[in-house]
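seq:
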Amino acid sequence: MRRFRDLAAALPPPPTGWLIGVLVRLPGEPAPVRYFYAVAHDDRARAEWAAADRAMLLGDIASSPFKGTEPVETMAQLARTTFDWSGLLKGEVRALGVKWPRRWLAA
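struct:
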């Protein structure tokens, strides 16, 4: 019979992810806007790079801070329960849009 510590050690670590904001100059917009991404990477820097790579498909990323806002900024770490209701998979980058993603932070 297996012991509890053996079962606990066999479980994979819970997924972690980050909410990233990227300043992107969208076509037709006079100034860059912050576009939000949910990124399921353990490493924060890797998550920022993944969000920046995805943002380049939309338009040009701001090359320097705009009105005190960094071009790529980590907003918050995603809660573990977020992965349950969102279906976000490990390594996935999901575009959330330009509105503040309250639902992703409330869980």
